[in-house]
Amino acid sequence: MSKKQWFKDTVVYQVYPMSFQDSDNDGIGDLPGITKRLDYIKKLGADVIWLNPIYESPNKDNGYDIANYRAINPEYGSMNDFDDLLNKAHQLNLKIMMDLVVNHTSDQHHWFQESKKTKDNPFSDFYIWRDPVDGHEPNNWLAAFGGSAWTYVPERKQYYLHLFATGQPDLNWENPDVRQAVFDIERFWLDKGVDGFRMDVINLISKPKGLPDVPEPATAGKTMDFVADGHRLNEFLSQMNSEVLSKYDTITVGEMPGSTTEDAIKYTGLNSHELNMVFQFEHVGLSPNPDVRLGKWNDQPVKLTELKASLNRWQTGLDGKGWNSLYWNNHDQPRAVSRFGNDDPKYRVLSAKMLATTLHLMQGTPYVYQGEELGMTNAHFTKLNQYEDIESINFYHELVEQEKIVDGPTMLKYLANISRDNARTPMQWNDKNNAGFSSAKPWFALNPNYKSINVEDSLADKNSVFYYYQKLIKLRHNNEIIKYGSFEEIDPDDDQVYAYRRHYEGKTLLLISNFTDKIVSRDYGQSNASSLLIDNYEDDKVNELRPYEAKAYLFK
Ligand code: TEU
User: Fold this and answer.
1) If pLDDT is split at 50, 70 and 90, which confidence band does 539 have?
2) What are the beta bridge partners of residue 511?
3) How far is the CA of 332 from the centre of ligand 1 (A)?
4) What is the whole-number distance in angstroms between the Cα of residue 510 and the centre of ligand 1?
5) Distance 472 CA to ligand 1 centre (A)
6) Over the stretch 44-81, which tens digit does the pLDDT of each residue have?
7) Which residues are in the Glycosyl hydrolase family 13 catalytic domain (predicted)?
8) Catalytic-residue membership of 255
9) How far is CA 471 from its chain centroid?
């Protein structure tokens, strides 16, 4: 494997700094807190740490609105704290991946502060400004966090585009000065020794020519799909790669809402020289509400056959042509065991291990979101004032109070099922005060189940989800067939069991996962296997699959 391809051998651990570990007792996670916990991440076996944004920000979208790309948010610490974290991580042979948010900045960034003043200053064309059309917004695009994607600025007598919050103006990537400014930001962090970037909604940076309306009825989801994977995206990513990324030994992943496998092959293809891999959204966008105006806000479970069809499409679609990221959850998604498994105490551990086995034996680079390795669950909030996320709150007000599309109790059920807040409750380190996250009142509510789901208890239990993840990561590190094997789907229509094979250099790996709480039996020839690689029941009844049982076999 060439030096440049080490991303195929790695497992990434995602840290949401605000909720990971507080060290200065202000109730907010910080960089020294992460440094203090590096040994824990190393013990899990991860190779890379993805840090959600830690830059100076007014935090209208928890750091995804950056006001200064070269300064650390004081709530997280200083640049010296960052340098200390980076050095200690490297001493432990852990790489650091930063979150690069360059589709938009904060409206408090000095570029925007200048841009909005006049039409003829050096930053006037750094953003996407348009004249009113018949006294209204330039088109019918809607923003991902509610309302129009346009906001009027009287000083300029123009609207500016923001695909997300009004405080997140979209950068104008058509402007070569914007691209060079972004490349300089990347060089700043890469020259400090950072090992790569997760690029936030990077497939939105090339806007469609003329910014035409989306087909009515416009929705936020349709707007994002309409803008995604624009006509100059490959050009911009190729320029970024040739001018910056190719000069360093980096790992890069592009967050690409709406991208297809065909798109992903263009960005991550073996000869594409753009990015290493993408975060696609198909499998986490399943079971949307039948009413398109409600988008993702739904409480229906994901159908296994649809989940299999989606993941299998990406496995077979990129096999030998590109590279997948593998993830069940992150800071934008509900907790995996609640969404795809079963967080009833009777089945939580088993189904968390089953989900991990199913994902980690696929082809691609696995991402573990903080707490996923404990089997942390959704928060199961019941009241609106328990929510913090701009997306949750904005859509409650828009869909319940303004547009009256859904009633309050129903929307609260949808939020409990799928809001981003589910992923942002503080990390659960122990069963003591504030779960060991902080000695001050945490910025966001703890999940009360920290009393029974926490790191300390997990490390003391050899059958914990933590040690199971550790085993899976070790299996990946030590088995080429897991890293590089091809993918063969089995029985796509089976709505109880997920099974697939991997093939590499004459060997075959067989994965069989029972996604139900029933005992089922399946025979894929596992009795002829040369060895059992892993089983979340620790013993094997061969053709019988107990509730949420997952196992993998090797055939030599
Ligand atoms: O998310 C992009 C994105 O598409 C998500 O907002 C997703 O569509 C939504 O959360 C689904 O409900 C990235 C970041 O991961 C997210 O945290 C930011 O809020 C967003 O971009 C804007 O920067």
Assistant:
1) confident
2) 500, 552
3) 6
4) 35
5) 29
6) 999 999 999 999 999 999 999 999 999 999 999 999 99
7) 14-424
8) yes
9) 23
In the sheet that holds 497-504, the strands lie side by side as 486-490, 497-504, 507-514, 550-555, 531-535
Q: Is 200 assigned a catalytic role?
A: yes
Q: Any residues with CB less than 8 A from the CB of 114 and at least 6 apart, and which?
A: 121, 122, 123, 124
pLDDT in tens, 143-171: 999 999 999 999 999 999 999 999 999 99
User: What residue owns the CA closest to ligand 1's atom 20?
Assistant: 64
State the amino acid at position 256 in one-letter form. Answer: M
**Please, are residues 542 and 526 in contact by the beta-carbon 8 Å criterion?**
yes
Q: How far is the CA of 545 from the centre of ligand 1 (A)?
A: 37
Which of the following is catalytic: 200, 263, 282, 549?
200
Strands 277-279 and 251-255: parallel
CB contact at 8 A, 238 and 183: no
Q: How far apart are CA 74 and CA 72, in angstroms?
A: 6
Residue 22 has pLDDT above 90, yes or no: yes
Ligand 1, from 64, 205, 414: best to mutate by most atoms within 8 Å of Cβ? 64
List, in order, residues 6 or more apart from 1 with CB less than 8 Å away: 8, 9
Kindly give the distance from the C-alpha atom of residue 371 to the centroid of ligand 1, in angstroms, as a whole number.
20
CA 218 to centroid of chain Cα atoms: 26
0.95 exceeded by the pTM?
yes
pLDDT for res 1: 45
Q: Which atom of ligand 1 is nearest to the CA of 165?
A: 22
Q: Whose CA is nearest to atom 5 of ligand 1?
A: 332
Q: Give the model confidence (pLDDT) of 308-335 as tens digits.
A: 999 999 999 999 999 999 999 999 999 9
Query: 3-state DSSP helix/strand/coil percent for the chain, to nearest 5?
Result: 35, 15, 45
The identity of residue 400, as a single letter, is V
Please give the Cα distance from 177 to 127 (Å, whole number): 11
User: For residue 29, which of 87, 81, 100 has the smallest C-alpha distance?
Assistant: 81
**What residue's CA is closest to ligand 1, atom 10?**
332
Domains and CATH numbers, the chain: 6-105+176-383+427-470 (3.20.20.80), 486-555 (2.60.40.1180)
User: Which ipTM did the prediction report?
Assistant: 0.97
Tens of pLDDT, residues 126-135: 999 999 999 9
